[in-house]
Amino acid sequence: MSKLNLLCMFTFCTCFAARDPPTVKIPDQGVIMGREVSRSRVQKIIGYYGIPYAQPPLGPLRFSPPVTDDLPTWEDVRNATEYRPSCLQNSKNIREETKPFLNLTYPSFNNFSMDEDCLYLNVFVPHGKPPIDGFATIIWFHPGNFTAGSPAMWNPHTLVFRQRIILVTLAWRLSIMGFFTTMDGEAPGNYGLMDQQAAMMWVKRNIKLFGGNPDNICLMGYGTGGVSVGLHMINPSSREYFNKAIKLLRNAVMPPMTQHFQFTFLMYH
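and the corresponding structure tokens:
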């Protein structure tokens, strides 16, 4: 091979390797930098991780509805290439059947982390140009009996790559942090469901920036994630944020799921 050919090949490889990472500018928040997620040289999607959809539920915002009218902002490009910690939960509640899901996305289940500052979502986008009317979008609610779980419980690659849809996964407050109630106006409860609705609002407002169609959004959930889908289907204030729904395994009116929960979240908008 001639020196000229070697030089051309080196130049091409250098330029290819130096391709800029994907970025998206979110109005009223800032610019995020995602990363390419690939299973092979041709099976690639784009992932944007850890995007805040509400103010951190800390201090006076604990046991309160999510604050979405003043979202977190940043000036520099935000590194959105790794999952944020999951919401607080008892790790013993993460049953054996959920561990394989976590092992798909976490290098080691032992490194699984949690934080009270956890209201973040992740957006996975097909590689390439979107269709004229934009990608359909699925918002996925994880299982876990409202006491455990993580947005990293499901590897998004196959669905996004093969079906060419956008997938959004999210964390919301769990257990006592998400469902404690005094049964009155002091702490009405169901903050976890309100968090889900806040994320739905964020997706409806911003998914077009990722090539999605804001008028083609589907809710999807497995187990108690399916219960969440059913609750939003009967919640009038949620209906404007999605167009379709897929419930897997469970529904909103199963007695074990409803006997200990009040539907106060129906009043949140």
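(Above: one complete record from the training split.) The chain has one domain: 24-267.
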